[in-house]
Amino acid sequence: MDLIEIDNLFFRRGERVIFDGLSMRIPKGRITAIMGPSGTGKTTLLRIIGGQLKPDSGSVKVDGVDVCSLSRKGLFELRRRMGMLFQSSALFTDLSVFENVAFPLRLHTDIDDDVIRDLSLMKLNAVGLRGARDLMPSQLSGGMARRVALARAIALDPDLLMYDEPFTGQDPIAMGVVLSLIKSLNDALGTTSVLVSHDIHETISIADQIFVISDGQVIGSGTPAELQQHNSERIRQFMNGLPDGPVPFHYPADDLRFDLLGGDA
Amino acid sequence: MRIRMIEITVGAFMLAGILALAFLAIRVSGVNLDRSDDVYRVTAVFDDVAGLRVRAKVSMSGVTLGRVSAIEIDTEFGEALVTMELNSSAGEISNDAGAQILTEGILGARYVGLVPGGSDEPFVDGDVIDSSNTQGALVIEKLVGDLVTRLGA
Amino acid sequence: MIRYLRLLGQSALGFLESLGRASMMWGLAIWGLPKRGDFSILVKQIYHIGVLSLVIIGLSAFSIGAVIALQFYTQLFRFGAQDTVGLGLALVLLRELGPVVTALLFAGRAGSAITAEISLMKTTDQLAAMEMMGIDPLQRVVAPRLWAGLLCLPMLTAVFNVVAIWGGSIVAVDWLGADRESYWALMKDGVLLWDDLVLGMTKSVVFAIVVTWIAVFQGYNSEPTAEGIGLATTRTVVVSSVAVLALDFLMTLVMYGDFQ
Questions:
Q1: How close, in Å, is residue A256 to chain C by CA atoms?
Q2: Local confidence band at C21 (pLDDT 50, 70, 90 cut-offs)
Q3: What is the model's pLDDT at position A245?
Q4: Could you tell me whether strands B57-60 and B110-115 are parallel, antiparallel, or unpaired per DSSP bridges?
Q5: Total of domains in chain A
Q6: Do the domain assignments include residue A164?
Q7: CA-based nearest residue in chain C for residue A77
Q8: Domain contains A76
Q9: Among B28, B53, B107, whose Cβ lies nearest the Cβ of C187?
Q10: Do C132 and A91 touch (CB under 8 A)?
Q11: C16 touches chain A (CB under 8 A)
């Protein structure tokens, strides 16, 4: 059973083509990773799934509902069933840690303050930060902020959790914490997790399935083990972290010699 | 605690704003709350109302009785019809009073001055002061013109 | 030639597009408040937008009132009309200076803060995070600021006028020795409720709509970079100041234009 079905997706930003006929199926209840070199539009893909960006053509279905054709109201309804962890954590800087986690509960449910308090503390406990409830976001380290953001993302027990580069900019310990949290949350809540990253080792260690995208298309998919043995040179280059290969090290440019000898600036 | 402080100052701010508005209405623009705006209209016919404006004040012996509400021209006789709204609360004014166009100071605004009459009957709504009983505006240019003509003769 | 024509067309289209987006935002935000009307966010915004502007408004009002009274007094004294200082001051304030100066100060003090706050929230993905939670930032972030601005600017204008008239009385009456009774009595006699107070406050309401709208729109549509925040903040102050001055001229023409 697939939670997300993406078919023939085209998306252009200005003159640049980001997605060029991309299709993928994301299964329910598993951890799916979307990998690729930076700048391939991984974050853009998450935003399209969440309906924040509209594709030029193609269809994106979440649980059978076409995201692109939803009204503003319908979209907000659908998003209540999604949680997203932003790369920047995106905590509300004017609210305390506790209020950040309680925020979606307060706005989307009619439950009593006491219950909201208990629920929020439980979510904070799940990420190990129950003791930090009264701190303001500016007092948190990057790793702690991300864990608070995670607690906020799971506050409404979403069906779909999206992680945007959850490992970037974290020290090794914090990275380990986030890794085990993603894994355990997925197992405990039965959530479908979609994770966007270019950190190969961490991703391999938790993902059930990986899509590698490049040049706006899926160039390979499968389990981590399958991909590492893939017969395409591009995928092996990426999975093994080689600097140069079919995915070029250089941004497309004129010949260096020509440039240095003073072509046209 | 901090939230409470904010709420209190916001409350004080709104109160200050409303009080300021009330002050402007009552002390500055002189709205009288306890007076029902009971007025009656009297029209005066003038030969010349140069410089008189709608909303100019109407007074008698220096006491303001009301305001000018409309200035129109009677095309048939070429006379100006000045409609005045007089406050009932100012008391009754005998219906043979005259009207003049006066100036506050030398350069000040034009206003209508009523000249007390002797009749026992008071003005009622719709009364007219005819042109035999009114004196129009003194137009300085006209006076100077007259003077020059007279000196020349 | 064709190029310039194209450029003109482009900028006209761009202008219309942003006008359209701004109107849509305005509409969505204005209808947004009553639902889940979390009263406390509105109170907090009134605090930030209104209460914190009070000091600068009060100081400016006092000194402007005092200075105008001083100038009027020295000129009117030559005609022996120094008692009409209060009247002249009140008319100038209620009709023009009160609404205009308050709106300009408001744009600099509160408008720029609104823009900076919203664009920073945008830069740090807070608005996107809200959207992804199924919470409309137009309702949650934009609407309370619009309403607070709409409420605060007329209030601040009234406070400005009162403080300035009081400042004028301190200079003209207490210091220079105009007659206290005449200062207030002539003012009361000459100032009209409708022509002066109500029309002046109408201006203020129009300015409130325009300035907060510009501030919120610039924040919401800013480029999500450090440079973008700075640019948006500056643009709020410049655009809303120009808009206030231009609108004031137009409204003065319409309101007081029939010079018989």
A1: 32
A2: confident
A3: 67
A4: parallel
A5: 1
A6: yes
A7: C134
A8: yes
A9: B28
A10: no
A11: no
Collapse the DSSP code of A218 into the 3-class scheme (helix H, G, I; strand E, B; otherwise coil) and give the result. strand
Contacts B14 to C, Cβ<8 Å: 46, 155
Neighbouring chains of B at 3+ CB pairs within 8 Å? C
Average pLDDT, stretch C106-131? 93
Closest CB to C158: pick one of B3, B20, B53: B20
Whole-angstrom Cα distance, residue A240 to residue A156? 38
| CA gap C144, C29 in Å, rounded | 8
Does residue C86 belong to any structural domain of this protein?
A: yes
Give C9's pLDDT tier (boundaries 50, 70, 90).
confident
User: How far is A216 from C134, CA to CA, in rounded Å?
Assistant: 28
Q: How many Cα atoms within 13 Å fall on the side-chain side of residue A220?
A: 20
Say how far apart CA A216 and CA A42 lie, in whole Å: 10
Q: Quick check: is C259 in a domain?
A: no
Q: Please give the helix or strand (H or E) that residue A177 lies within, else none.
A: helix A172-189
Chain C contact probe: residue of A86, A123, A148, A194 with most C CBs at under 10 A: A86
Write out residues in chain A with pLDDT < 70, as ranges.
242-250, 262-265
pTM: 0.79
Give the domain extent around A23: 2-81+158-264
Strands A2-13 and A65-66: unpaired
* Closest residue, chain C, to B56 (C-alpha): C190
Asked whether residue A256 is domain-assigned, the answer is yes
User: CATH number for the domain including A235?
Assistant: 3.40.50.300
Q: Which residue of A has its CA nearest to C37?
A: A107
Residue C260 has pLDDT above 50, yes or no: no
Q: In the numeric block, which tokens belong to residue C139?
A: 């309702």
pLDDT at residue number A176: 86
Q: Which range has highest mean pLDDT (A239-248, C38-47, C238-247)?
A: C238-247
Amino acid at A161: L
Contact list in A for residue C133 (CB cut-off 8 A) is 79-80, 83, 103-104, 107-108, 156
**B20 at interface of C, judged by CB pairs closer than 8 A:** yes
Percent of residues, chain C, with pLDDT higher than 70:
96
Q: Is there a domain that residue C100 lies in? A: yes
Q: Which residues of C touch B (CB under 8 A)?
A: 40, 43-44, 46-47, 50-51, 54, 79, 81, 90, 94, 154-156, 158-159, 161-162, 165, 184, 187-189, 191-193, 195-197, 201, 260
What's the CA gap between C185 and B63, in Å, rounded?
13
The whole-angstrom separation of Cα A211 and Cα A222 is 7
pLDDT, tens digit, 9 for 90 and up, residues C172-213:
999 998 888 888 888 887 888 888 899 999 999 999 999 999
Minimum CA–CA partner of A75 in chain C: C134
Q: Do A87 and A115 touch, CB atoms closer than 8 A?
A: no
Residue bearing tokens 């709350």: B33
For C46, the domain range is 37-250
Residues of chain B in contact with residue C182, where contact means CB-CB under 8 angstroms, are none
